[in-house]
Predict the structure.
Amino acid sequence: MNKKNDAQDPHPWRFFRSGGFDQVAIETGEDLRSLEKLDLKLWTALNCPATGLEFDERTLALVDADGDGQIRVPELLAAVRWSCEMLTDPQVMFSDAGLPVSAIDASHSEGAGLHAAAVKVLEYLEKSPDSPLVVGDFADMTRLFSPDHFNGDGVVTAALTDDASLQALIGEIMATQGEVADRSGAPGITAGTLEAFYAQAQAVVDWHGQSAADAEHILPLGEGTAAGAALFESVRAKVDDFFTRCRLAAYDASATEALNPPASVYCALGDRDIAAADDDVAALPLAEIVADRPLPLAAGLNPAWAGAIGRLRDEVVGPILGPREALAQEDWELLSARFSAYRQWQADKPETAVHGLDLERVREILSGQGRERLAALIEEDLAADTSAGTVDALERLVRYQRDLVTLLRNFVTLSDFYSGERKAIFQAGTLYLDQRSCELVMRVADMGRHATMAPFSGCYLVYCDCVRKGSPSLSIVAALTNGEVDELMVPGRNGVFYDRAGRDWKATVVKVVEQPISIRQAFWSPYRRLARFIENQIQKFAASRDKDIESRTTAGVSDAAAQAGAGQTPAAQAFDIAKFAGVFAAIGLAIGAIGTALVAMLTGLFSLAWWQVPLVLLVMALLISTPSMLLAYLTLRRRNLGPLLDANGWAVNARARINVPFGAALTGIPVLPAGSSRSLSDPFAEKKRPWKTWLLLLMLVIIAIVLWRQGVFDGLRGGVDESAVEVQVEVTPDDPNGA
């Protein structure tokens, strides 16, 4: 693909020039077949991101074979090559009607499989065999597969067999291992759930086998061991507490009184109604604490525990140790040891839902042939010709038929962008801001990173944060390529962004990258900057004066209040005539300097011939505006789309210019509709007052008087008179000194 076209079979490419560079036209199936022969230096882009584009993400994921998030040239060529191999005529890739089944090449095995799958899909969708396949046909995959047909996904449903025993077994496996959805949407099992079920079933049977093999130790009470162990565990802590207290009393007789409840406890209980199950009663020891005393099993027991101890005597102690009226500590420890094997057996119990099945049913399942028969069904499903993989490949081909040419026209070329017939895949929508519509709008994932490279595009850029209820916020960048930007305020200026789906978003300007927009704006920019400078200086001067007056007033009021509080009469400040004289003198000097400069300028202008005055004014304007216009021209000349795309992860391989006419097409300014009428009568327009006219006339009169007093008009009149006299002397014949 990096080599020149084959000299023996050159493809007649057609190029068109747009954006300041040559772009290849992709119009025919032969263009697609020969695309890998096109020199990479003639490609507009070499890679682009697989996300963040106004393009079908599923199609981009299919093209991105290695899943690295980038669409590269080899991947795009592989998609084009595979599509051409699967079609009888690649020209169908340019059709908007969908993919006809007859267009699939069935002359080779892969194409034949796709053709058969296409026929099956149309049958499942109840469409005619001549209907074209479209992407929407694959939106609901459950419609393309029947639960009672093998589909190659490895999921076996109960509908795939007529054997009632296998259907019951499938239900039991799903009940204990969970369901797996088939391509048809019906629940089923897989090889994984099948093996897991049988492994767990075998573990359950083996676990029960341990108790049968050593029943004397593991099940000391036989079938009643579980209930007896539960009863034993319910009183175990309380009995251990009793024997421990008795051993402490034997260790130190003086501790016996402290180990038994004090009389105050019984006094507190005596002040209220007592129930046998009262918590305060249950907290008392099982029986009176005496050194080395055995636990009574009938008389002398704590009422809260008498019932449980009585059951322990009848259901556990009697069957294991024989009838007893008291239980020594040694007998209690022996009883605990008899249940230790049962506790360990319970700890080894497998964690599985198979315990919910009857043990005899589990043994029946393990001894039957269900495992082998279900495994055979799974293998048969995986080997089915109308497999899920074939349908996936068919969907891929249908998506390529719809989307691949569009991707090529935004990758190999930028024809969609420059043609203006439809937006390019990197154009996110339209931003309406400051009485204009911006078409060159892109999504931005990282605004800071994007703003470091995007200024090299030479475009005036506006970054906005967009929000919409119910949707995550997004960031965009818009290029302003027409109109004026004097009223664009940052931050906080609001606009409206319409995405490609027509949804409106509130857009707030957060960052601006300033660049020239037009030569006309550059011509007036020095004067606008001067006006802004003067306005800012006036505002600063007014603000400083206002602050100074406020501070002086506050200080004066504070001093007067302080003097009044001290019983003093505030002294009147003397009028400083010298100070005010100095102020007026300074004002007079400033006015005189301005007047002198103005008179000097006007004197110079009036000394010229009348036709030279506009030329001088024009030259002065050009001298002021030419540097700004020259810089604007150089910037507009290099305005380029490439850095904007590169900042978003593209690898642009061409200098995609945005000249002035094309820039005007990308940013719309308000224009009255054709055939509309317009009334210039504004009822709220500012009323015209004659004082401005009178002021202008007064200024002209003052200037004329100043010029007259300077002798400007006398000089002009005197020059004319002397010339006339000289001419008269030369032509008078009566001159006595004449020849």
Q: What stands out?
A: The first strand starts at residue 15 and ends at 18. The first helix runs from residue 29 to 33. Residues 1-6, 719-739 have pLDDT under 50 and may be disordered. The two ends are 101 Å apart (CA to CA).
